[in-house]
Give the backbone structure.
Amino acid sequence: MTEATPKSPPRIVVVAGATGIGKTARAIELAQKVGGEIVNADSMQIYRHMDIGTAKPTADELGRVPHHLIDIVDPDDHFDAARYYKVARAVVGDLLKRNVVPFVVGGTGFYIKALLYGLFEARPSDPVVRQKLRAQAAAEGNAAMHAHLAAQDPQTAGRLHPNDSFRVVRALEVIAITGAPLSELHHRHGFSDAPYNACMIGLDMPRAQLYDRINRRVDLMIAQGLQAEVTRLLDQGYDAGLKSMQSIGYRHMIAYLTGRLDWSEMMRTLKRDTRRYAKRQYTWMRRMAGLNWLRADQPDKLLAATVSFLEKQR
């Protein structure tokens, strides 16, 4: 009696890359040609009412290919990689049951990694520790808290912006509760839960070209009404200190609206910080095993790589 051939893991396609590189447009083209659907892996596009600053797909783009995990929570809802892991795996599982190819698309590398390989089991949060750290952050400022983290966990600090106070405080909380750096806990886990066979595409382009696209994209966001969008969010009662409101674009516009920056300085720092964010995304994703880097301006090669992968799985 012959042994049954082990069933290969289900196939999915990942399209990752830096902000402004054109992930949405390329992924829609690919998904249309192979009958796929898009699963968002951008940590900001999950929020309702935050459209311009997050560069969500347009109504036309949403109509061309079904999208999932966009506009699923309010700006004051808590959402992290653990929650993304649960909802994204459920969506991907449903698509696979329907024999639809999931295209996981976004620039939040940790979300993609969580979906593909699972999450380590961290100890529960400690409200007392967290409150103490938040009070310390309020007294000392974001830069000081980031410096504290860099001294204890330089690897995690290296991937977090000093203004990302939510994640900086969380990383310090993990150290206080577990006695181990977050990066060490990640290493121990190994992210070995891998239920999918993934075609991992990283979109690339010359850095100068990307930075020019980013600068023009910021100008477009302003023309589309980013100031009005942020004003509306504040008028709706969403606090400027929320994790969502402290993201790139929103915190810059809030600084302008509250008089902490003039218009020219707001625009300068917004473009600068967006470019820096793209650089950090590249650095983070370069460490992702299996990511196949292809030029974003060569759609034929992107399609060939996708079709070749899918055909091999049949």
